[in-house]
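Researcher: Excuse me, tokens okay?
***
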Amino acid sequence: MAKDKIPSVGVLDKPENLDDLLKQDRGEDCLACRVVGGGAFLGLAAYSYYSGTTQLERNEAKILASKSMFGMRSRKLGIATTSLGLAWLGIWRMFM
């Protein structure tokens, strides 16, 4: 019989390396997919920053009159942080 083709219990009991499995499963994107995906995130970041700051400037008087705990500075920081996060995703999508 073909005794050398049957693996031993020690070999079967050993789990496969997770990093190797993820590398095999990942696959590669084409250049066009990366450019379109990254450009979409970068465009979304620009739109988010522009529209957010425009709306803040438009509603500044209402926000200040409301005596809210979150003033203009924290709202601007939130918009900038969201936009930077989206821009980072766009850069990551293009190059990583």
About this structure: DSSP finds five helices and no strands in the chain.
